[in-house]
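User: Before I run my own analysis I want an independent prediction to cross-check against. Here's the chain; please return only the structure tokens and, at the end, one sentence I can use as a sanity check.
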Amino acid sequence: MGPRTLYRIGAGLLAFFGVAHTFGMLQKSSAGPAVDGVVASMQAVRFNAMGSMRSVYDFYFGFGILLTIYLLFTAVMAWQLGRLATDAPAAARALAWPFALLQVAVAVMSWVYFFLAPQIVSSLAALCAIAAALKLPRS
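Assistant: Structure tokens:
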């Protein structure tokens, strides 16, 4: 399997991760009274953050949306790296390892802080990025 295919598979995994993350964030299911109480408190307590009144939940939700945007951007970037791997391998090489290390960092954070679904998807995306970087032709 060549780098183009590996980047395209990684792009699909990252797009899936972004879409699934968004659906998971927007799902309004109860995780029990204790969690519901914490969420209600996060929404109720408001404070001034550099001139804007915000709640802890605003930050929580906002960071979740930022993660979705990041995941969708990295899906586009992986797709474009697949094109570059064929059309301009030198340009792809300049981005290949920083991109792979970024995906490894996301996988590590997923294993430390999250649960099985993001752990698996982020690990597969990282493996695709590493394998693609290794398979890029040298000058």
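Sanity check: Helices lie at 3-26, 33-44, 56-87, 89-113, 116-135.
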